[in-house]
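Sequence in, structure out.
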Amino acid sequence: MNNKLSERLYAITKFVARNSIVADIGTDHGQIPMYLIENNISKRVIASDISQGSLNKTINYIKELKVSDKIIARLGDGLEIIKPFEVDTVIIAGMGGLLIRDILSKDIELTNSITNFILQPMVATKELREYLYNNNFKIIDEELVLEDNKYYEIIYAKRGKDIVEKEIYYEIGKKIIEKNHPLLKSFIEYKINKQSSIIKELTGINTDKGKIRLEEIEGLISQYKEVLKIVEG
């Protein structure tokens, strides 16, 4: 494993196919594009960011190693920096799930020209999955990473129809459950603890809104425990 990459970023690169042409949206300091080119995974990578300051490190790297034919730095917002069919793979990592959803939905024609979507939301993963399932995306695989005591969910999707058999698959990726991921048990326990702490906060609130929220959370914990039973056999 390349020491330059964190566990989270390395896990993202594992979904990138050989000889692909990639756009890394919100590239920050360009670590993923550098890794993909240094390891001969991608033919070409477009590294984009909305911040000039973040992009400058990538630009300096491109100049230093003379790889301007392989890594192209572009300043801009979301998918606006690419043309239809210019890339086959898009990476959108380190942003909120709602922002990722907005980026994908802004120009459907452009989004439809992309084959592979590697998405790593920092929050609102449930909402992102709901968007994907309801807008002709098929989740091919998922990965779960624990880094610095924080769980990161990585979604690999393509365009296509998919059916959600259970509500819990919005909360926890179906693929993560199916492969009984090594981190699945601790991830569910973490989620149960998180929801249980919200229940403590809601205790004593007698408003209708509070009662509805309490029922929702208790129902969610029940779903988590059902998955936990399956995991534990």
